[in-house]
Amino acid sequence: MKKFILPVVGLLACIAVACNNSNKKNDEHSGQTHSGDKPKTQADSLMAAIDDGHIVGMSKIGKLHNTQKQVQGIIDSIGKLPAKAKQAAAPYVAKLQALVKDLKYADFAMDKWMTEYDMDSAINNMEQRIKYLTDEKMKVGKMKEAILGGLQKADSLLREKF
Q: Is 135 inside any structural domain?
């Protein structure tokens, strides 16, 4: 009987520990935070906002590059059409060229921000750090908006018929 009870107790202990760890993982993935995970300072809040903006931008950068190639391909294809068809498509091509410019700017903005951002800037001077992080939050917001806005404009324009 002792040979049976000891393994059963051990198994129950393992299950209890596994269930407890599973609940913690589910909380983390569902967006629930524990008291230790909440931003403690204004700098922490700014860093979290910057990280969120960066993640959104990076999650769309592949789509941005693919869209840029797609739009350029359409422009190139229209360029091979007979003169009369090219002339008819000229207003649409102008919109596509403006879109390519917007998409290139969004890509440039992401690269520039990532190159220049210093997450440890003014780490020993909280007043300067708050100012720096506030400025960076604004830059990330503009960069994110350029990416999302460019993709939204592309989605609309690519559905348009000329």
A: yes
Domain count, the chain: 1
Give the pTM: 0.73
Query: Residues 100, 75: contact at Cβ < 8 Å?
Result: yes
Question: HEC string of the chain?
Answer: CHHHHHHHHHHHHHHHHHHHHHHHHHHHHCCCCCCCCCCCCHHHHHHHHHHHHHHHHHHHHHHHHHHHHHHHHHHHHHHCCCHHHHHHHHHHHHHHHHHHHHHHHHHHHHHHHHHHCCCCCCCCCHHHHHHHHHHHHHHHHHHHHHHHHHHHHHHHHHHCCC
Within-domain flag for 64: yes
Which residues span the domain enclosing 125? 40-159
Distance CA 139, CA 9 (A): 57
Q: Is residue 20 part of a domain?
A: no
CA-to-CA distance for 78 and 98, rounded, in angstroms? 15
pLDDT tens figures, 106-149: 999 999 999 999 999 999 999 999 999 999 999 999 999 999 99
Q: How far apart are CA 86 and CA 79, in angstroms?
A: 6
Q: Is residue 18 part of a domain?
A: no
Cβ–Cβ < 8 Å for 27, 36? no
